[in-house]
Specification:
With 186 residues, the chain is α/β, with parallel strands linked by helices. The protein has a single domain, classed as Rossmann fold (3-Layer(aba) Sandwich), CATH 3.40.50. The protein has a 6-stranded mixed β-sheet with strand order 5-4-3-6-7-8, with helices on both faces. Strands 1-2 form a two-stranded antiparallel sheet. A hairpin with a 5-residue loop joins β1 and β2. α1 runs antiparallel to α3. The longest helix is centred in the first third of the chain and has 18 residues.
Length: 186
């Protein structure tokens, strides 16, 4: 499923060097998924692949979303792909979870067409420690929705997936750091 995605990710997003990740972890591999997720090639690849994976999961979500900024373009691509799918009778809605509550207006933590009765697939661009997905899960559950699982573009294979699963949520990943590194070598 993810060959085309690995090619796009490897070509656009993956870099070697010395990096400090958002989690604070030091790494010699940096995957700036936004380079892929905000590109035309990435959006047109990610949306259908992730939507198909969700259809095959049996989770039956009503909406998709996660912590801004990484989850946003992935969520939008999935929602768009669901609207185009001829076999989908009910397109998925996309929303975003703020990192902090809005300081003005309604003070909302979740923006977009989110409904507290939703069955939600939490979206993540890159899983390292699982912290971003778990923060989004906490906000979504606090708003009353049911989280059915987490779908991620990339699993860095550094324990984050296991941390999310240990918290009781199944995880689907479209590709892994190992697969991206192998693609970088070819």
């Amino acid at each position: 499923m993810g060959r085309c995605l690995r090619e796009v990710n490897g070509a656009l997003s993956a870099r070697r060097g010395q990096f400090t990740l958002a989690s604070g972890v030091r790494s010699t591999l940096y995957i700036d998924a936004r380079i892929t997720t905000m590109s035309p090639e990435g959006l047109s690849t990610i949306g259908p692949l992730a939507f198909q994976a969700l259809q095959e999961s049996g989770w039956h979500p009503d909406s998709v979303g996660g912590l801004t900024l990484g989850a946003d373009p992935v969520s939008y691509a999935i929602a768009y792909a669901s609207a185009l799918a001829t076999f989908s009778s009910s397109p998925l809605r996309a929303f975003t979870v703020r990192k902090e509550p809005k300081g003005h207006g309604t003070g909302k933590m979740i923006e977009g067409p989110f409904d507290s009765r939703d069955r939600v697939a939490v979206v993540e661009d890159v899983i390292t420690t699982g912290g971003s997905a778990l923060k989004a899960i906490d906000a979504i559950r606090a708003a009353g929705a049911t989280v059915v699982g987490v779908i991620a573009l990339v699993d860095r294979e550094e324990g984050g997936r296991e941390r999310i699963e240990h918290a009781g949520y199944p995880v689907i990943t479209l590709t892994t750091a190992t697969e991206i590194v192998a693609q970088m070598r070819s």
